[in-house]
């Protein structure tokens, strides 16, 4: 029988049937016995635990009746179970072998933390929370749960949201605080990490009179000095020790320290990749890996940008990549350069990013100036023997040395051969190798080492049975890594064959994913072509990944969003391969992938893929219409507003009746740049359809977009109504991206109203959601939002720090909109502090870009700020001209708040105090009309201008 105490009491039979335990006192009795873990409990103790200071008149008899009820309930569910409740001289005891708390502790001891924590359904012994008998065991279990959670989070990427909540609940726990500080630092939030330390130090001193422990003190110092060891590794974990490369590793590390480009060259299978990864693991700093083997020539730039965490939604991806690299010291590992032309891009990156180092692997040098070439030689005899004996589990012998000599010390050949020792023995292996290589020695035109490796793979192939050979050659169509499910579906064979190939070292494994080594993949593809199976296998590969994309698309709008985003991230190379291999289904595939690309900010990849799919003739018109909508939406920030409107109308014209989601998407992606009236009509039509169809996700999305469109006219009531309803729906659906969208208008309402605590609360919640999903552009926007509130409340140091961090994130993500928003924040803070030259530089930089994308609201705002700067310098004619331009832009948009801002600027530029007062009054009336009077924190310019006007006589006065 199974008992659950990690939450409300659960009792089940061995068959899984629930057991009803009647009466609260009987359940409390059962929990009391479970808490004592098989130890006897006296009758007096049980009576005290059940009834406290008010026992029944016949307490002993009543207890016996409850014992009988418990036995009857257990026996009714599973005959014979009444014997579990025993009575002896020391009292009553319960024999329960299967209790979830015991299982939890066993799993923790085994290091299976996720499984252990998944057993918890609430607080331990939740039904008896107010009973003294449960306190000690409950406290012990809760402490074990927290310790296990800490250990799991220490191994988890993107754990910041969970850590934030745990630190709030356990503010004095030092290990938790250390994990939190590391997570903040890795998210680029150094000042918050330092503040977290200061808060703990103050709390410890105030409540306990103690100081932080030495580990936390050292972590604090490491954050202050930006210690490279704090950066998380992006490299795959090593599955076993690297043997025989001690000197090569030391030499490569020394060469990399003195040279910004180091290329490891050597034949296939010699261990270039393994050595490069080991150099990377030993490197103190930020290391990024780009695996070029599965890529096409056109994918290299995008792959490097992705490795650096940049989104690709702009046409100028290379300049954005260069800008990101100029600000950060990085070691970039480019693996398998020989089949693509990587030299030009590598040279450009090195020339313009002085803090960058590149470690390349290739069968030949890249041929760039300043390149240092390190030839990775085959292992010497002794090193080869060490590797072979370690992998085969045998001792040194002459037969072992003969094998190592025959295999030329090539690590891959040695690893493959070692798997055969179990079946053949060392001498049998040596004899067979000698025979095989004598037969193969006559090859011409192929280097000896390549003949050795080819012969080794040939020999491994010949030892496979027919099904294993079929599986291995069909695996060759996968790009990068793959899952067992994918392998089985595409090959139409049992996935157990993959595991058999892992045992034979022909398939490599990482965490629940698999891949073919480069040389094995090339060999297997040849065999696939020879078998005449390539076309059919590639077709199944494409169809499998189409099904996967469609399955994922449903989960990307709900509580499993984060899981499926990560899953699709891992399949990027396979999706590219599928698009190339099966053009006839490419429109269906891009339609299934488009929402993923959009969420991840990979708009450039989306545009290229969709355009290529649209160029394939003979596809379904409905698919073409859907793809065209995605294409136009993804291009929203690259076109002017008028062009956006025309392109969107043309896309929608492909339908007899445009779907509501197409109407919404084109309004959502264009809301900041397109024609507001047109967009509002689209989104209103979408809302009507979503409501009629019962599409709650669509309705929530469209409401959030309508709330954003109402920002232009500061329609606070509509923004609140739509924003709250949208947030409510997205909360019900569990869609974190949706929560981010819905909260935006609520943040703006709070800021306009001067309700800064509410704005901060929404911003901090949104920031946690964005970090949890890995949506770093949204992180940038929300960080800037917090910077705005800091600026408005007069905390300029914090405002500058937050805007600076947001700007860096935006540059890294290659997002111009987020970068502009952050830099305008820096300009606002600089102007408020009197640093007018700095402010002018921040603002002026963005005017051309805003004109290019049709960002008229932004143009109006920046012109107003530049006008205020001119007026503060005393250049009233220039101020007048700038504010007049801003006024005209605001009139064009129809934004009453922007018009009021321009009027306030014109008031400051006016020479006549009477005109100044009239314009200020007009602006105030306009703000009052739309229900958004200036809050005190935003009256800096109005108060300044009013004060000056009151001191200056009107023209013609005495």
From TrEMBL:
Q: Which residues bind DNA?
A: 1-96
Q: Name one GO molecular function term.
A: ATP hydrolysis activity
Where is the OmpR/PhoB-type domain positioned along the sequence?
Answer: 1-96
| Keyword terms of this UniProt record | DNA-binding
**InterPro entries referenced in this protein's UniProt entry, alphabetically:** AAA_22, BTAD, OmpR/PhoB-type_DNA-bd, P-loop_NTPase, Sig_transdc_resp-reg_C-effctor, TPR-like_helical_dom_sf, WH-like_DNA-bd_sf
Q: Name one GO biological process term.
A: phosphorelay signal transduction system
Q: Which SMART domains match?
A: BTAD (SM01043), Trans_reg_C (SM00862)
CDD domains xrefs: BTAD (cd15831)
Cross-referenced Gene3D superfamilies, in alphabetical order? Tetratricopeptide repeat domain, Winged helix-like DNA-binding domain superfamily/Winged helix DNA-binding domain
Q: Which PROSITE patterns match?
A: OMPR_PHOB (PS51755)
Q: Where is this region: Disordered?
A: 932-958
Family according to the record: Belongs to the AfsR/DnrI/RedD regulatory family.
- The protein's name in its UniProt record: Tetratricopeptide repeat protein
Source organism: Kribbella turkmenica
């Amino acid at each position: 029988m199974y008992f659950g105490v990690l939450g409300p009491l659960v009792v089940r039979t061995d068959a899984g049937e629930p057991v009803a335990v009647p009466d609260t006192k009987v359940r409390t009795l059962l929990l009391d016995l479970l808490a004592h873990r098989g130890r006897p409990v006296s009758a007096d103790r049980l009576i005290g635990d059940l009834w406290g200071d008010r026992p029944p008149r016949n307490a002993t008899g009543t207890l016996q009746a409850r014992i009988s009820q418990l036995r009857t309930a257990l026996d009714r569910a599973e005959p014979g179970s009444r014997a579990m409740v025993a009575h002896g001289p020391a009292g009553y005891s319960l024999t329960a072998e299967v209790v979830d708390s015991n299982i939890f502790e066993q799993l923790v001891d085994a290091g299976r933390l996720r499984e252990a924590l998944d057993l918890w359904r609430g607080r331990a012994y939740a039904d008896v929370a107010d009973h003294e008998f449960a306190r000690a065991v409950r406290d012990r279990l809760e402490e074990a749960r927290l310790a296990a959670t800490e250990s799991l989070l220490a191994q988890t990427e993107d754990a910041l949201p969970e850590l934030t909540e745990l630190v709030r609940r356990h503010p004095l726990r030092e290990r938790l605080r250390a994990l939190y500080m590391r997570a903040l630092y890795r998210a680029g939030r150094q000042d918050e990490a330092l503040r977290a330390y200061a808060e703990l130090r103050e709390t410890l001193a105030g409540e306990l009179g103690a100081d932080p422990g030495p580990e936390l003190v050292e972590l604090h110092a490491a954050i202050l000095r930006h210690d490279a060891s704090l950066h998380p590794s992006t490299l795959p974990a090593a599955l076993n020790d690297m043997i025989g490369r001690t000197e090569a590793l030391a030499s490569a590390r020394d060469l990399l320290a003195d040279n910004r480009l180091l290329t490891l060259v050597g034949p296939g299978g010699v261990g270039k990749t393994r050595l490069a990864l080991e150099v990377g693991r030993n490197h103190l700093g930020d290391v990024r890996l780009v695996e070029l083997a599965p890529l096409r020539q056109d994918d290299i730039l995008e792959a490097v940008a992705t490795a650096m965490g940049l989104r690709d939604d702009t046409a100028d991806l290379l300049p954005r990549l260069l800008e990101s690299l100029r600000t950060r010291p990085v070691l970039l590992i480019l693996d398998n350069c020989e089949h693509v032309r990587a030299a030009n891009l590598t040279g450009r990156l090195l020339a313009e990013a002085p803090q960058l180092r590149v470690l390349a692997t290739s069968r030949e040098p890249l041929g760039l100036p300043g390149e240092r070439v390190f030839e990775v030689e085959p292992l010497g005899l002794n090193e080869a023997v060490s590797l072979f004996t370690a992998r085969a589990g045998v001792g040194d012998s002459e037969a072992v040395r003969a094998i190592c000599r025959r295999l030329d010390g090539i690590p891959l050949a040695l690893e493959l051969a070692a798997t055969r020792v179990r079946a053949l023995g060392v001498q049998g292996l040596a004899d067979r190798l000698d025979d095989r290589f004598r037969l193969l020695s006559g090859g011409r035109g192929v280097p000896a080492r390549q003949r050795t490796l080819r012969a080794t793979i040939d020999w491994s192939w010949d030892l496979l049975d027919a099904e294993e050979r079929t599986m291995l050659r069909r695996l060759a169509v996968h790009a990068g890594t793959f899952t067992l499910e994918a392998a089985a579906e595409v090959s139409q064979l049992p996935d157990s064959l993959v595991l058999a190939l892992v045992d034979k070292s022909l398939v490599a494994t990482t965490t629940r994913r698999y891949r073919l080594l480069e040389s094995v993949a090339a060999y297997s593809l040849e065999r696939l072509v020879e078998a005449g199976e390539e076309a059919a296998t590639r077709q199944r590969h494409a169809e499998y990944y189409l099904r996967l994309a469609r399955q994922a698309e449903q989960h990307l709008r709900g509580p499993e969003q984060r899981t499926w985003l990560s899953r699709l991230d891992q399949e990027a190379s396979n999706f590219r391969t599928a698009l190339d291999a099966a053009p006839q289904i490419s429109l269906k595939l891009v339609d299934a992938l488009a929402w993923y690309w959009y969420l991840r900010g990979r708009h450039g990849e989306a545009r290229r893929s969709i355009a290529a799919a649209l160029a394939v003739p003979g596809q379904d018109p409905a698919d073409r219409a859907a793809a065209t909508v995605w294409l136009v939406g993804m291009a929203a920030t690259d076109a002017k507003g008028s062009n956006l409107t025309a392109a969107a109308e043309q896309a929608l014209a492909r339908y007899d009746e445009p779907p509501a989601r197409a109407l919404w998407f084109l309004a959502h992606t264009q809301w900041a740049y397109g024609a507001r009236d047109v967009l509002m009509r689209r989104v209103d039509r979408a809302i009507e359809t979503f409501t009629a169809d019962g599409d709650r996700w669509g309705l929530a999305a469209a409401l959030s977009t309508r709330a954003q469109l109402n920002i232009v006219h500061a329609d606070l009531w509509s923004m609140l109504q739509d924003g709250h309803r949208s947030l409510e729906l997205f909360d019900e659906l569990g869609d974190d991206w949706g929560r981010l969208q819905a909260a935006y208008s609520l943040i703006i309402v709070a800021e306009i109203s001067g309700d800064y605590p509410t704005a901060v609360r929404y911003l901090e919640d949104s920031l946690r959601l964005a970090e949890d999903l890995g949506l770093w552009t949204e992180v940038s926007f929300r960080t800037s939002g917090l910077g705005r509130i800091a600026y408005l409340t007069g905390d300029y140091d914090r405002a500058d720090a937050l805007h600076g961090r947001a700007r860096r994130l935006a540059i890294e993500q290659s997002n111009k909109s987020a970068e502009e928003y952050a830099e305008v924040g820096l300009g606002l803070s600089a102007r408020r502090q009197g640093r007018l030259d700095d402010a002018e530089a921040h603002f002026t930089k963005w005017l051309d870009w805003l004109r290019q994308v049709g960002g008229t609201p932004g143009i109006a705002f920046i012109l107003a700020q530049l006008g205020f700067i001119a007026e503060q310098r005393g250049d009233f004619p220039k101020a007048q001209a700038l504010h007049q331009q801003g006024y005209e832009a605001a009139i064009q948009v129809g934004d009453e708040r922007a018009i009021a801002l321009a009027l306030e600027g014109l008031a400051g530029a006016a020479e006549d105090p009477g005109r100044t007062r009239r314009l200020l009054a007009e602006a105030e009336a306009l703000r009052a009309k739309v229900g958004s009077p200036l809050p005190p924190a935003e009256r800096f310019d109005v108060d300044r201008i009013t004060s000056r006007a009151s001191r200056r006589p009107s023209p013609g006065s005495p």
